[in-house]
Amino acid sequence: IEFADDKSAVVDHLNYDLSDDGQHTLIVASPSNLLSSELIVGQAKKNNLPFLFRGTGMSSDPENPLLLDVLTASSTSYTANPDEKTLSEYPATVGKRTLLISVLQARNNARVGFVGSLDFFSNDFFLSAVQPNNGKKSDKSGNQDLAVALTDWLFKQRGVLRSRNIHHYLKSDKSTPRFYTV
Hints:
There is one protein chain. The chain has four helices and nine strands. The chain is of the alpha+beta class. The chain is elongated. It has a three-stranded antiparallel beta sheet with strand order 6-8-9, with helices on one face. A two-stranded antiparallel ribbon has the order 1-5. Strands 2-7 form a two-stranded antiparallel sheet. It has one domain (2-154). One of its GO terms (biological process) is protein N-linked glycosylation via asparagine.
């Protein structure tokens, strides 16, 4: 995972909330950009509520099988310094390659979450109505549903296989041999 520099933010001139301050950094992420895994995102995708996000974008190596893109920005977004009037260099991330939330499950089953926005977890964003500039108002954001489901997965409250009291034996004999020969 690579975060954009500290002065950068995800900017989207077509998918922003009307309560934005004019820089178009309070973006509205569509539930269609959410990972299709109920184990990780819970009912957040089925609830079909938009997400509020204000923060920096990330990029990842698409060849890494341990990383999952949980929430991506829209195809019209990019990560850059919103205080600059013109882009002096190519943006750090562009379009759907702009990750808003990503998770990693390491080979030892440790789980790590990466979110480019502290506001995503705030009470303000949990309880806020979402008014995208396209006019489809929602009384509530999907932030809280996603945050709860994501933390449940990260802290192994869901999506864990457990085994107890395992017995093994040869098909021909119900007793457990001390050694097996292959």
